[in-house]
Hints:
Layout: E1 2-6, H1 10-27, E2 32-37, H2 85-92, H3 105-122, E3 127-132, E4 136-141, E5 147-151, E6 157-159, E7 161-164, H4 175-187, E8 190-192, E9 208-212, H5 216-225, E10 232-233, E11 239-240, E12 247-251, H6 279-283, H7 292-315, H8 324-333, H9 339-348, H10 358-362, H11 373-391, H12 398-412, H13 414-417, H14 422-441, H15 446-457, E13 461-465, E14 469-473, E15 476-480, E16 488-490, E17 492-495, H16 509-517, E18 522-525, E19 528-533, E20 540-542, E21 548-554, H17 575-599
Parallel strand pairs: 1-2, 1-7, 2-3, 7-21, 8-17, 9-12, 9-17, 12-13
Antiparallel strand pairs: 4-5, 5-6, 10-11, 14-15, 15-16, 18-19, 20-21
Helix pairs in contact: 1-3, 1-17, 7-12, 11-15
Amino acid sequence: xxxxxxxxxxxxxxxxxxxxxxxxxxxxxxxxxxxxxxxxxxxxxxxxxxxxxxxxxxxxxxxxxxxxxxxxxxxxxxxxxxxxxxxxxxxxxxxxxxxxxxxxxxxxxxxxxxxxxxxxxxxxxxxxxxxxxxxxxxxxxxxxxxxxxxxxxxxxxxxxxxxxxxxxxxxxxxxxxxxxxxxxxxxxxxxxxxxxxxxxxxxxxxxxxxxxxxxxxxxxxxxxxxxxxxxxxxxxxxxxxxxxxxxxxxxxxxxxxxxxxxxxxxxxxxxxxxxxxxxxxxxxxxxxxxxxxxxxxxxxxxxxxxxxxxxxxxxxxxxxxxxxxxxxxxxxxxxxxxxxxxxxxxxxxxxxxxxxxxxxxxxxxxxxxxxxxxxxxxxxxxxxxxxxxxxxxxxxxxxxxxxxxxxxxxxxxxxxxxxxxxxxxxxxxxxxxxxxxxxxxxxxxxxxxxxxxxxxxxxxxxxxxxxxxxxxxxxxxxxxxxxxxxxxxxxxxxxxxxxxxxxxxxxxxxxxxxxxxxxxxxxxxxxxxxxxxxxxxxxxxxxxxxxxxxxxxxxxxxxxxxxxxxxxxxxxxxxxxxxxxxxxxxxxxxxxxxxxxxxx
Length: 600
């Protein structure tokens, strides 16, 4: 039997680990040849490849990164223990890696490559694993039920089962991005559409530049355009420019960067999750189409509050007026959106700074108006400094309790995605919820925000304000915030974010061919396109006629399953591991069924 996996990055590697684990049970002693096709290094793939700037770091601490499911992960296949990133570094003598360090992507590349080699060496004798450094461009069904995988090199290969594990995808500009790109071409301007930052050509970026986005892509962009151009951050908190930096005028919807990662551990330990956002609560939601903000978010918010207040009451009881058991019993009885919940918290938590206000967290400058530009710069610097201080002060470890609750929520969301309306999936789940989760839980190390403050004081970074608006007029780009008087003009505009999922505008040749031939189709829910490749609950690719392909699977952020992360925090029953186990076992069953059919 022949299995072809298109992609060899962390997502493919995680699934391969689960395949190898379950192969003895589901294949027995039958021979299986697995071929992974990827132009980038196996294990690391494109995003985590070693040949990128050493200045680019992971945004997770080394102790929070593992590729191996542990005993907390609820899977059907057998578990095979393996080290987390910091444990691997200790075992292999990799220098300067501690549990709470933020290592370079080059170090992570080494870990992922090692994991891939370990998984391959762990395969049973009847399972052979090979890698082709090539790019798959087209799939073709054969009359005998097998598939032909066409390669960029011109030499096709044959497969009984194909799995598409393509990771983050590039996209051709569409909509506003396409209009801005055309405007830039017509007026001799520079426009950089959404893309993976490490792959951008930034040589033409000089002078005044508008930047839309203040998330992780923005952090990478700033690093490459400052330290990457010879500037230096000094121990006294200042920045020494090289003279080659552009001046970055930055803004976004919220107008503020992602929250810094916490620099502490819980004082009291986490409560059991899930509490208010688990299988029982999700199964009891109404049968009809759901709206995320209306039907699901109140449960999510209550779960976040549960994690936050558990740590506050048990870890810092001197800042509360009730014991945890009393508060927890009352909290369990009140809806999130209720006067009773507000009154309960106000009575039990005297300091307003200790109360969880998710709306304020989400839009910190909502309703704020600034008198002038100086007031904006001062307000943003004060906000960022306060965030860094809070995320480094264990007195506020309740924020970490909320973070862990968010992780638990993410693990439960697959149970509800398919029940949401199309509009809610696109606008509320993919856009708002994913943005809020990233903003609160997936920010950079705190020292990156200290560096941002230094760049602001040095005049390299200039904050525009919240609710950023971009206009193309009079041969230039303009930016403004309704909260601040005035506009900023520049000859360059950078979109500091990854492209949204768009199977129609994908730059990937294989997916474009699937769509053109009807062998794959864009997911449409209630007449609303999600931009994703339509797949079944078993991760099978669905064609234009609505039929599931029995031997073609797809996983990743660009699919209906929305699986994004490939590695995860240890001991959290992480969703990526559960998904990888499920699809691996589905693939092995499909191989076995196909083999039995061929023998008959």
